[in-house]
């Protein structure tokens, strides 16, 4: 009996989190409340308080999912083995992140809101996603040393920020800064550009 209750609770928690993510991806935070979430999830609103202690707990649970998002979306790249050099590591990261960001409307929404409507809730979600990304980089890097003669953290931040801006522009307008991005051939052009930039900066550094 207790095992069945635990399964029911886990299923309800998952339904609430999934419903919350769907609401945020579709509508943003504007109408994100306990009553609306309960309707979306098909549950009594008291369960949101019982299982999550309210909306902040739901946000933190989504944050946990987003931390896993960074790791899980990029995890298949670990099967490629140890990168030959630091440039290859960042190339894998950039291309993997580009693809993962392209296909996830919730993460796109969160990034857009960071620019247009920052809030403590968004800050928690973004911090969780960043933690997952850092954990993947540490695991994928292994014993590769970060270059000491250039500011690699700042360069990597600029690369990631450019990827986010490109994807957001393409999602909204079908192009980014005059470059059309409506099909895979056009996206391949952007992937080649990213590779060229990364190699120009990092060369064959090990």
Q: Globular, elongated, flat, extended or rod-shaped: what is the shape?
A: globular
Structural class: mainly alpha
Taking strands numbered 1, 2, ... along the chain, how are they ordered across the largest sheet? 1-2
**What proportion of the residues is helical, as a percent range?**
over 70%
Low-confidence spans: none
Report the portion of residues in β strands.
under 5%
Distance linking N and C termini = 57 Å
Largest sheet properties: 2 strands, antiparallel
Rg over alpha carbons: 19 Å
So how many helices?
A: 9
Quick take:
With 206 residues, this protein is an all-alpha fold. The protein has nine helices and two strands; from the N terminus they run ααααααααββα.
Summarize the structure in words.
With 206 residues, the chain is an all-alpha fold. The protein contains nine helices and two strands. It has a two-stranded antiparallel sheet. Helix 1 (2-27) packs across helix 3, helix 1 (2-27) crosses helix 4 (55-74) and helix 1 (2-27) crosses helix 6. It is globular and about 55 Å long. The termini are far apart.
Topology:
Elements (H helix, E strand, L loop, with lengths): L1 H26 L6 H8 L3 H8 L2 H20 L11 H17 L2 H12 L3 H22 L10 H22 L1 E2 L2 E2 L3 H19 L4
Antiparallel strand pairs: 1-2
Helix pairs in contact: 1-2, 1-3, 1-4, 1-6, 3-4, 4-7, 5-8, 5-9, 6-7
